[in-house]
Amino acid sequence: MSTSEQMAVGIDGLAVYIPRLYIDLTGEWAEVRGAAQGVDSAELVAKLTKGIGVSKMAIPDAHEDSATMAAMAAKRLIDGLEMDPAEIGYLAVATETTVDQSKSIAAYVLGMLQRHYGVDLSHVGCPQFQFACIGGTYALEAATALVRGGDLGDRCAIVIATDVARYPMGGPAECTQGAGAVALRVAAHPRLLRLDRCVHATVSVDERDFFRPNWSAEAVVDGQYSVDVYLGCLDRVLRAVPASAAAGVGDAAKGLMADYYLFHTPFPRMAEYAAARLYRRLESLKTNPDPAAWGDDPAAEREADRATAKQDAFRGWFARHCNPALLHGREVGNIYSGALYLSLGSLVESLAVSNETRAGKRVLFFSYGSGASAKLFAGTFTTDDAQTTGVACLSNDLSPETDRPGGRRHSLGLAEYERLHGVHSKTGEPMGPVVQGSVREPASEFALVRYGTESSSVRVDLGYRYYSFVSGAGNDDLVRAASAEIPAVTRPLRTGSGI
Ligand code: CAA
User: Is 415 helix (H, G, I), strand (E, B) or coil?
Assistant: First the structure.
């Protein structure tokens, strides 16, 4: 066996960036939407908090998008792990809400990091991965293979999953929006999580459950059908594990046993639906190793899941093995490609808060992307390293600024939220040069500072997005960034403090 085959490779560190703005779904939003639906707001709040499992949704400001959030997550990772950015050998960014129909979003992120840290990263491969919410996992798979194969030498890979989940206002999916990015450092001898050498199972099918046509900034989703397709794909990858065990590749029960189960989480109740399905399959495998015995009628299986979800035995199992990973999803909403890895951050933080040792604990991941593809893979926590724990923790960031000094989140009124929803929905026409309408002035963050407007014999940049790190309110950086090429300058509406 070669050295590279024996080498442990996995996630060395994880950092999350969530926009500061959020809408509280239990306040004005519920009153107005409840009235429009003819539903009492208290009942709508009960549906949201218990039936869907969310209470807040993160909303990007006007100067934020998938590229700025990705760069922010990368910066948090680099600074938190005290990394030299020149150590990066590969930068893969997964998104289904990209900022350009041609250029890799990773190239924008690379540029932001180069300028901010003053390093040359021109040796770095920087592809974009896209396959709905599973894109981050495909990127992680590629990065892991490069590190394991020794292709990056002593360098590491950075994988970022970044998205803005946006649906039509007033529709049933609106309450499952969100925004954020998760950055992973993938390296040999990881301090956080060693990934198993083989992905346990992959399934891909050609489905219409959820998609976003080229002309739309909002996703089109067949809600209940999308839940069925998700659970159908979960069943297919679960069936594949006993099948490969039967072929002598591994042991089914062993392959599916874990201390913690993480699911793609578009909303926390979805993880509970998936957990109930997994629990039923694990129970069935105890007496019959053949998955052919499992039912496959979607409606009947969902009814069986619902019945299981009410049982005390399931509730205890879920609380122990799944719930610790759902801490942040309720406060952030869906972040599409990063949702599974936000769950990993939640798990790390939950274990830290409860003073539980994580080293040696096994985690089974169910990654899902609409359209559709699913993967089941596993890893084992390697250490309880305090630095990696600190970088992954997010709770302080998610405290509203009104709750305590140092709180970072800013609650939006409904009108402000609806205005920003409109700002981000404009993809069809070239924008003016100035990025207008930020609720908070960019401060200590990467920001979209202007759009290109030229189409002359000297320069063509119509619609191009210019990004820069903005140090603080009224700071020269913003002026310098915007005036480097043309005089247009972002002028947000209000001022705010550092990040
Ligand atoms: N108190 C407690 N619970 C209540 C309640 C109340 N007052 N009122 C309703 N509920 C419960 C319902 O009983 C239901 O729970 P069960 O399934 O256990 O019965 C739950 O709340 C949700 O109610 P509905 O199913 O009626 O909700 P809905 O049809 O209005 O919308 C949704 C739900 C389909 C998920 C919709 O929000 C949506 O389309 N979201 C976007 C699509 C999505 O996230 N799909 C997930 C799979 S696809 C994927 O994972 C990829 C991705 O990231 C998008």
Answer: helix
Distance 188 CA to ligand 1 centre (A): 40
Backbone angles phi, psi at 180, to 5 degrees: 165, 175
Q: Tokens for 381?
A: 């926590």
- Predicted TM-score (pTM) of the model is 0.93
Residue nearest to atom 24 of ligand 1 (CA): 51
Contact present, 391 and 158 (Cβ < 8 Å): no
Answer yes or no: is the C-beta of 58 below 6 A from any ligand 1 atom.
Answer: no
| Binding site membership of 51 for ligand 1 (Cβ less than 6 Å) | yes
Closest Cα to atom 22 of ligand 1: 51
CA dihedral 370, 371, 376, 380 (to 10 degrees): -50
Report the residue among 57, 131, 176, 301 best suited for mutation to probe ligand 1: largest number of ligand atoms under 8 A from its CB. Answer: 176
pLDDT tens readout for residues 426-442: 655 556 677 788 999 99
Task: Give 497's contacts (C-beta < 8 A, 6+ positions apart).
Answer: 443, 473
pLDDT tens-digit readout, 37-76: 999 999 999 999 999 999 999 999 999 999 999 999 999 9
Q: DSSP string spanning 40-55?
A: -HHHHHHIIIIII--S
Q: Specify whether the CB–CB gap between 198 and 145 falls below 8 A.
A: no
